[in-house]
Amino acid sequence: MAAEESPDAAPGAASLARLDEIVSLCARRGIIWQSSEIYGGINGFWDYGPLGVELKNNLKALWWQRVVRERDDVEGLDSSIIAHPRTWEASGHVEHFSDPLVDCRACKKRVRADQLDDVGPCPARQGTSEHDWTPARNFNLMLRTQIGAQEDAASTAFLRAETCQSIFLDFKRVRESARQKIPFGIAQIGKSFRNEINPRNFTFRSREFEQAELEFFVHPSEREKWFAHWLAERLAFYRALGFDGERLRVRPHRPDELAHYARAASDIEFRFPFGWQEIEGVHDRGDWDLRRHSEFSGKDLSITDEETKERYTPMVIETSAGVDRSCLALLCNAYAEERLPDGETRSVLRLPASLAPIQVAVLPLAKKLAEPAIALAAVLRRRFAVFYDESGNIGRRYRRQDEVGTPFCVTIDFESAADGKVTLRERDSMAQQRVSTDGLIAALADRLVEGR
Ligand code: GAP
Question: What's the Cα-to-Cα distance from 390 to each of 57, 68, 213, 368, 370, rounded to whole Å?
């Protein structure tokens, strides 16, 4: 295993090498790779392959289960990616959503002004090796597109920079149709786009990414209570994914780093191989969004309390998770290189069993046993994510499954037909147990539902 570093230490070479191993594993095993690879790639865009899409879907399904389905005070939404362009004027993104940008006059490198420490020497100025930076200027991060056949300013639209704005636009419609009263929330999972100046650290900072956002509407007197509630809920979510105290922390924002819409904010941070970084933001957005959209659209988005007759604009507590960052955190948390008692090493992804892309691998000990093994795989497939593999020696097949985080392997051997039993092998302990084929579904269901 790579040497562990103290939680606050700057990331060392061992940590960064570990990230390289994860990136290479992801590409090799069809989890994540760079988009448009055959054209040399496109910076800041990623494709999730057969195993990656399963992992990501499982994570999104878990979020939806916890945040929407298990609650009677949260409704779901799936809005369009492109909203009326006025949306982004009202939200403040056209005016404020920018990063400071500098260019090197010598080598033409373009970087975020707050990341100059990470830039190496200037290749065009070997005498001094120092860059010749321009003064910083603001660079708006919104990606633009054109709608319709005209290419003029009036047809310019934006790919959304956060999923939540449509939640505010649809607030009245959802509240009335779902007959919800304050406090209640609206949740959405979907793609967001930011023209990041320097995409980096694998999927961590991308130009296209997915967010899972909840906007929870509360009475002004209850903002602090609900902020604390949602911060605790979201921390519990990540702890249940197996992120422990060494890897997870909360960092409240200083007043000078608050986003233009936020009155208070805390980042939930994960310790990646490249250091502590945000995976989710919990924000008190106040009445900024509903008030601004009321002003810009001319539609009143305040509400009247039926009992007290008080008229007010609800305050918003937001939880904004990055799905790609959480997937990356899951992979970093799960990845280990282990030395085995027989002197060999194995790579293993100790993913939570319920999120693993493959839940059960069915492996006949020999090709001659393919027929009953294929039949068993077909039965298991109705309940679980199953992979069938008959090629190579059994040890190598186990390793291949360990490497992608498959929690259980089921092996059919030459005794199986006679005694009605198969071998169930567990990924983390590598313990093997003979179980009856009849009880196999129940045994797996127990472990996969209960398993983290
Ligand atoms: N609606 C509030 C909002 O968008 P944010 O802190 O800008 O807040 C929320 O973003 C989350 O979205 C972040 O915690 C992160 O997980 C994810 N995120 C933001 N920018 C990202 C990027 N360029 N690449 C990947 N994920 C990103």
Answer: 27, 41, 42, 10, 7
